[in-house]
């Protein structure tokens, strides 16, 4: 039995179809990343899993229990840790009092160890907590009862780099102990570091579920090369070449004796190659280029084999680029902000429902 089972999950808010026939499983012991831009429907799925909202159609099970059956869900929630994207603790009490309350409701097997790791200022009232400290307190309340399944809505927002790293190490250790983690994110670097598999949601619809490796393979390589001699652009008229940027440089005079610019740089695609013409051969050409390549590297090397290269590097493409390829076109949501490693984005597109979940409700 999978830890999370969604079948045809649909949530229709009237104006917005926030989840549209979403079907996937999260297996026991995996870290599953739920990836999508603002307003894609991630929080809606999470809130359905926790019984805060009921599905319009379809079914959802957590730890084998139906989320629409109150008694069943209550039983499952004892074994779940939930971290909302914006934990809402009672601001008038101290962190310590919050922990005592959570301990009395769901037990406390691990707070000591978690406090050493995440270290929120326990004697301060929550009102005086920074956003990061609220998140750290939320992490303690999420894991203190040693849950089987952790459901984390954008868990690293507000954490500094050291805390993010600590959190990543913690999750990996928990996975090796058998915990299942379902986390939503729009931070691609985080997903790459943390997750075994990803589900990608766009505009309420699941567009892919795949191992993170597959996402990396699909993302291709960033190729940078510098050649001793001009290479005709047609050599890169290959399937899988994206975002081609070329430069033709020789620093010398043109054939008619006029000085030509040492460098010219244009951004173009492989099919739009009628620029940077080599003035000797008349063919479009380059001596330096960068592009993203999702095709067969051997085919590429074969194409370039006859030219003398000064430099050639192939690096893993940033997941951001892959994400933009998934979401690049306008899709009717207001998610115009590019997805970035540091998670910066606009606040537009946020629903109100995802703002009401209290911390540690599970
Ligand atoms: N209570 C609600 N009533 C109406 N529409 C809602 C409600 N809650 C969410 N929505 C809409 O449903 C869509 C999905 O929202 P959801 O919060 O699930 O997205 P998300 O992927 O979690 O976004 P974010 O990354 O910004 O948190 C959005 O268009 C949102 O505006």
From TrEMBL:
The record's listing under PROSITE patterns reads: ABC_TRANSPORTER_2
What positions does the domain ABC transporter occupy?
4-228
Protein keywords: ATP-binding, Nucleotide-binding, Transport
The protein's superkingdom reads: Archaea
* GO molecular function terms noted in the UniProt entry: ATP binding; ATP hydrolysis activity
The segments labelled Disordered in the record are 245-271, 330-362
Gene3D superfamilies assigned to the protein according to its UniProt record, in alphabetical order = P-loop containing nucleotide triphosphate hydrolases (3.40.50.300)
Asked if the keyword Magnesium belongs to this entry, the reply reads no
Keyword Magnesium belongs to the record: no
- Family per similarity comment: Belongs to the ABC transporter superfamily.
Please report the name of this protein according to its UniProt entry. Answer: ABC transporter-like protein
Q: Which organism is it from?
A: Halobiforma nitratireducens JCM 10879
Taxonomic lineage is:
Archaea, Methanobacteriati, Methanobacteriota, Stenosarchaea group, Halobacteria
């Amino acid at each position: 039995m999978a830890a999370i089972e969604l079948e045809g999950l649909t949530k229709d808010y009237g104006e917005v179809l926030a989840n549209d026939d979403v079907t996937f499983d999260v297996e026991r012991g995996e870290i599953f990343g739920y990836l999508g831009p603002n307003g894609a429907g991630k929080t809606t799925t999470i809130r359905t899993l926790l019984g805060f909202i009921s599905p319009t159609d379809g079914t959802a099970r957590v730890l084998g229990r139906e989320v629409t059956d109150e008694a069943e869900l209550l039983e499952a929630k004892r074994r779940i840790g939930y971290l909302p994207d914006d934990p809402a603790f009672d601001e008038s009490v101290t962190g310590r009092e919050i922990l005592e309350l959570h301990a009395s409701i769901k037990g406390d097997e691990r707070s000591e160890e978690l406090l050493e790791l995440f270290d929120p200022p326990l004697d301060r009232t929550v009102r005086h907590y920074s956003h990061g400290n609220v998140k750290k307190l939320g992490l303690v309340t999420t894991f203190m009862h040693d849950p089987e399944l952790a459901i984390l809505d954008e868990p690293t927002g507000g954490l500094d780099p050291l805390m993010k790293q600590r959190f990543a190490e913690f999750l990996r250790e928990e996975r090796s102990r058998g915990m299942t983690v379902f986390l939503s994110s729009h931070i691609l670097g985080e997903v790459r570091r943390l997750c075994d598999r990803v589900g990608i949601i766009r505009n309420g619809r699941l567009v892919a579920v795949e191992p993170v490796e597959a996402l990396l393979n699909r993302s291709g390589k960033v190729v940078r090369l510098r050649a001793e001699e001009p290479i005709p652009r047609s050599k890169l008229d290959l399937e899988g070449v994206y975002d081609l940027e070329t430069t033709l440089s020789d620093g010398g005079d043109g054939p008619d004796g006029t000085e030509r610019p040492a460098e010219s740089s244009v951004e173009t695609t492989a099919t739009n190659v009628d620029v940077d013409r080599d003035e000797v051969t008349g063919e479009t050409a380059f001596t330096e280029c960068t592009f993203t390549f999702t095709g067969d590297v051997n085919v590429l090397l074969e194409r370039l084999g006859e030219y003398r290269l000064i430099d050639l590097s192939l690096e893993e493409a940033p997941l951001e680029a892959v994400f933009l390829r998934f979401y690049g076109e306008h899709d009717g949501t207001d998610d115009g902000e590019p997805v970035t490693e540091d998670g910066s984005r606009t606040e537009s597109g946020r629903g109100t429902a995802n703002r009401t979940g209290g911390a540690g409700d599970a």
